[in-house]
Specification:
Helix 2 packs across helix 4. The longest helix is centred in the N-terminal third of the chain and has 20 residues. Strands 8-7-6-9-10-11-12 form a seven-stranded parallel sheet. A five-stranded parallel sheet has the order 2-1-3-4-5, covered by helices on one side. By secondary structure, the protein is an alpha/beta fold. 37% of the residues are buried. It is elongated and about 70 Å long. The protein is built from nine helices and twelve strands. Strand 10, helix 7 and strand 11 form a beta-alpha-beta unit.
Length: 311
Amino acid sequence: MSTVAMFAAGEERWAQYERPLRDAFAEKRLEVELTRAPGDPAEVDYMIFAPGGPLTDFTPFTGLKAVLNLWAGVEDIVDNETLRVPLARMVDEGLTEGMVEWVTGHVLRHHLGMDAQICRQDGVWRHNVPPLARDRAVGILGLGALGQACAAALAALNFRVGGWSRSPKAFDGITSHHGEDGLAELLADSDILVLLLPLTPQTENLLDAQRLALMPEGAVLINPGRGQLIDDDALLAALDRGHLGHATLDVFREEPLPAAHPFWAHPRVTVTPHIASETRPMSAARLIAENIRRGEAGEPFLHLVDRARGY
């Protein structure tokens, strides 16, 4: 009997993922019945899942072996008490590459002062030469797969890169910090700060008024991680009084960002519509197929979530 994989990620995603998933299963020589509506939930072996849909109760899926999340973030599912099987998050090469490109582009934009030097076509000659990258400090909050990749790319451009994580980590060319003291040190030394932390109870509102005040005068904040990492009111206050020079935000507490939100009209805020990185169907399908192969072979799943830590 073939393995049954249920796609629980919405109509739009089904159109994007059906063919790449079937091709990936064929490449792995897996006999997988891919379905959106199984006749008997108890027969489902694997759930390909994206939060936000109608499925919130996993109790009927008594034969489930694992839930394979389509996104890197798992904060919307990790605390679901009906989910009692392994949960794997998405660590996708396409997602990583997209994040590196977006982060590098916006770091360079702020480093070079592109908004002032290129966008103002007003006939005024402004000869403002930026420092070299080696004289600019960039901090990365979060040294998981995405944080490490972005840090490495920025270090390769000669930026002075520091990173912070909950536990000690060591990487060539990157100054690593951890713990509360390490966070304070990194914030105080970051001309440009990039947020790539997961959302957990420990990271929610991590950047509050007190921690934002530790950053250098005129520093830039770039957030492609999670909107809830920042206290919005504290960020607006820091921008209003000029302590922070700019905030480029790709993620928000409520998405789409409401039209009346003050971020839209603030002169020191750039809004991008959650496009910093997206799971790519072809590369994501290959990872899902590999995890199903592993499950059927009795091998460990890739990228399992630590339910106690929340990621």
